[in-house]
Write the structure tokens for this entry.
Amino acid sequence: MQNRLAKLFLLIFISFSVTVSGQKLIDSPLARFNLGILEPAGSFRSAAMGGIGTAIRDNSTICYTNPASFSSIDTNSFVFDFGMDYGINLISDGTSYHHSDDMNFDHFMIGFPITKGIGVAAGLLPLSNGYYSIAETVASGNPGYDEVTGEYTGYHIGGGNLSNVFLGSGINLTKNISAGINMLVLFGDISRANEFIFKDLYNEYHDNISEDLRLSGINLEYGLQYSTPIKKDYFFNAGLSYSAGKNCKSNYEKLAMRFTSTGLTDTLPDLSVVDDTSKAYLPGTLRLGISFGKKNKFTAGVDYVATNWSNARFHGSDIYLSNTRAFLFGVEYIPDKFSNYSFTKRIEYRVGGHVEDNYLVLNGQQVKEWGASVGFGIPLRKTLSKTNIFFDFTRKSYATPSISHYENYFTMGASLNFYDFWFVKRKYD
């Protein structure tokens, strides 16, 4: 028992260190705006089922999008979930193409019961990714060329990310109703740099603008679930979770300067510094979901997710935000969970999809998203632990009179979902 605890705490420490310092290096021009690319919420089991989770109750899975589900964790058990993913982004405007890829740690979560009907969970989760790297040379004959400024090259680079640490608890209020609450601790920073180098290196000023936005704050998320048996082994669940909008601590720094390649000028280069510590406001999210199925056989569910991003206020968001609505749906099927003869019959097969709005508006057009996913829960020998694997395809697109931009995002991930009875006193060692 002590040996297993020591190994687990060591793994948690390593994964926490790597996840906090990790930067997902998948290039996307959409990351230039707002808080970057928002990461999908949910475990890898959820990701394989289109992202649903609001109405899911499972004793071996941490469904953190609804803290009421934590009350379903078995007495005397311990759940640990640690995952990493690999992503490829293919970008096109109809005439040119670009791709990037990266592998990174995604999340870790732990859950355990306090007593029968009361569970606790905690973890570290990604919220957004701000990485991009763009270079453009404007020469004579190119769109946007101006004879006054002449030829120049623009460099646009971004980095950083935002993450949430959560700590929550769920409790069974009655036989059919459970409630829960999550405390979310937001932290991280988004940095951006824009530099313009003109062809005439010695007789023209060049421009460099760097920005850094740091956010931190604490918010609460509330959840309810209703669960009832329909008939023998069949069930129906309904779920709701809600987090209110929250003012966050914000620190915005901007440095803009003009310079020459030699610095040998008659006047000093222009320098502008902005240091703003005004509050930022991030909106809350409403989730509604239903699920139904047969215990240990199949589960099907639908989620609706709404966030009023148009109410958000932070530096760089003035004209680029819009409300988002998402529909998520998924199915899980297990041929024979307790088969003694067939490994493939014990595998959990999953499929799902999602249709949603992106919170980003470009040239008056809101970016749209849709995607499909598949996955598997592969059981480990002689235990309820398993490896969750998922594959997801998501397309993000928008069109204007001058450009049609789309991104095809392929993601695959694997997580260890460790489940064991840790709080049972053994009669024999």
Observations:
- The longest helix spans residues 2-21.
- The chain has one domain: 2-421.
